[in-house]
Amino acid sequence: MDYILAKISSKQLLKIKCPDDCGAFLCDQDVYQILKATREVFSRYCKFKGISILSKNPNISWCVKAGCDGYMRKDLQSSNKLVCKPCSQNMCFLCKNPWHGEEMGQEAYGKG
Description:
two-stranded antiparallel sheet; alpha+beta
């Protein structure tokens, strides 16, 4: 159990190897059983795993508003202006700052 807790604490959640060194990776159900159904810890594991998966996607941006843990996905055809659904914050996908208008964002990247 300590092995799994250490992986959760260090946010190494996407590929947790079996603690018995058999080379296999643990699935979520394995982690749940090893943690003895500790809901709080398993819930934290699921949250951190979700964040890890989302963070690997280059089309995902995290909300820039303090205290908001929302994220936005940029579609290929959409503008660089993203709107966070949980808090309604507008932000620029290119520079990851609050929205400043199309022209400024494009000029900042030599496209204007």
